[in-house]
Amino acid sequence: MEQTDIIYFDNAATSFPKPMQVYDEVRRSMLYGGGNAGRGAHRLSMAAARKIFDCRMIAADFFGCEDPEKVVFTMNTTYALNLAIKGLLKTGDRVIISDLEHNAVYRPICALARDRGIKYDIFDTGCKENTSDDKLCEGIERLIRRDTRMLICTCASNICSRTLPIEKIGRLCRKRGLIFVLDAAQGAGHISIDMKRMNIDVLCVPSHKGLYGPQGCGMAIFGDGIECDTLVEGGNGYDSLNVGMGEMLPERFEAGTLPAPVIAGLCEGIKSVMAVGVEQIAAYERALYARALEMLDNTDGVRVYAPQFAGGVLLFDLDGFTSEQVASELDRYGICVRGGYHCAALAHKTLGTRASGAVRLSFGRYNKMSELEAFWRALRSVKDMR
Ligand code: PLP
Which residue range(s) make up the domain with 341? Predict the structure, then answer.
């Protein structure tokens, strides 16, 4: 099957395709900037370093961070979250998380509960009752205790389109002296994020989803006054005679060779999102969502979860089939969707889909309305197999 025959509704896993300028820049960077950034002062090394710095500047600007040196490149969002969680929480600390967290947050928190005796509380995002933002924040306030040190939550769910009131949560964290870590794996590029205005202390984002960069990198972007331990130590060409990683950002957290071509591609991905506009992209995804919802509502045996939250992610199941069966049958028609649990056991428990998982459609800016018609035809054929 040709790539052009494929209908890709799995953008929450990773966006596809990427803007052409991303592919072009990765290639250009490998051909003309193939040195190792920070490991030498020759022209190829400097060319790679310049690209990396360009990306820090663009990312800082895009996310409202005043200092590009606070943009730390990581392997992915998971690594950025582990850095913030394990580098900031100490034995005996308490942390608040949401009931929609991905395993990228939930698992490191559970590991620290086991290894460092940290405790965690879970706040209700009101997915079922459509709780107001103020009520959600009141729920968080009730969980804050003397030893609560951090709040970490997702910006938007990866299994439904629930977006959390980040600005209000950030304001509350600032007022109550909590470190605010935001998992923006599903928010970046879909929601406008301003670290300063939203009081975000550490912002964790991927290259490869809503920013339309390549896979292989993410970012942990630090706010002011955050003192975080390292997760990994090693060389980076900076202060090599010191046995420690030093205090300077970004070098403190960037051990080992950075994926310069990937970062160069990410830089183009962010520029392309800026050129189209986050609001524009989100509005288009909502239009796709509305049409898909209308189709699913008109299909017997389909149940949609949390349909009240319109956005880029839609979760459903089909009577008589497991979610994995639906996903693999759709794949026979060239339609890529994801079934199962989406690495989000806690979120599936919240939506009541923990027993069986569900099918996720996730839209991106390159999806077309006509692709939804093809999806609907295929889904009805799958249904008729029963
Ligand atoms: N957080 C959320 C909400 C996600 O949806 C994902 C990935 O799907 C992650 C974290 C992990 O992102 P990455 O695969 O870049 O580590």
Answer: 277-383
